[in-house]
Input
Amino acid sequence: MLSMYLSFLFITAVSALQLTDYPFNRPEITNFISQISSSPYLSEKFAKADNYTILAPTNNALNIWLANNNDASLFNATITYHLLQGIHSSSSLKDGSQLLVSSLIDSSWCNVTGGQRVESQNRNGNVVFESWLKNESTITSADLLAEGGIVHIIDTVLEVPSGVFDTLPRANLSYTVEVLSKGNFVSTENFKFAEGIGFSHDITFLIPNSATAVANFHTAGRNQSDLNAQISYHCVSRLLYKGDFVNGTELQTLAGVPLMVTIDQDGSVYVNSAKITTWDYLVDNGVMHIIDDMLNPNNITRHASNTTLAATPLESSAKVGLSGGVKAAIGAVIGVFVLALVIGGLLFYRRRKNSRRGTEVQERGELNGEQSPQEMSTVKNHREMSSNPVGEVPELETEENAVEMLADVPKWK
Output
């Protein structure tokens, strides 16, 4: 404890970060440092860093990532995502699951107040970081003291979280995609509803992903506004990570109808009568938690708990994995996977387009204006887009109208 305190005094007493000094001259991270040094945008951001933690990927890790990603803005966002706010020693990161705040605040990539999160986990004494789609990065060299902060070297590049409609199919949440298919939620005709959800800030998504959820989602005799309102009931209008759920509380949703939280004595968490089975999927405007049934604002039934717990927050713990039985949907649902990716990609591109201003970030050379959707298709992995989108998508209003669009999200009547 005394040594950590003395280390803290040392690293906070020195001046601005110098990328030529130790530990930034270590041979295994020269590529990472070189990329920062060659970018005026990144150089300025890192030079101003103080009271920070840098997660520096190895040369091999960064080379693998660069071979599959050549978008300038994504590169800047990704490197910035590795600069965490606050000093996090490896010993402090072994204290259960934690959501760490990064320096990624650019609204082109993040609609999360304060900065996009990175999750840390303690896996049998080893610190593992989780980013988009729960991609994992492990510390290979820990607690390297630097001017103003601390550095951990990691073996995999962190992935910047993408939008919720992009994340659902890529996370193989096939039952959820089937619900989207039944409810016509990602059709081009329903694009404005997806727009309102995708452009909103600080949303907690409760994602129904089970055969029971599909069976309990009824569409007969219901109009699109009514169906959209039920999906809005799965969207909580504030950020709630695993440790933020409190027994006995109500959560306000975008549908205008509250949800009830119950925590059993065994630690299981329920919203109404649906159980949360998987926690903390990071997305660009909040977080997703997987639940085992549809939520129905006409049936607000609290889980029949045997708990006597007081209204206290849930303790964080290690990751709960996805059910091994979840398989990709077939037939028509495959088409919805593709369309969800297109809708997610278009929302992502248009938010980026409308949030750009005159002093666009630079990366490893010059950014030549705004990219078209076809140019965006060169961004691999979670930034792929179809060059032939299905149907015509309405023109997006300016980002300043995002609040107004969110007001159009149907409320339950």
Summary: The chain has 14 helices and 14 strands.
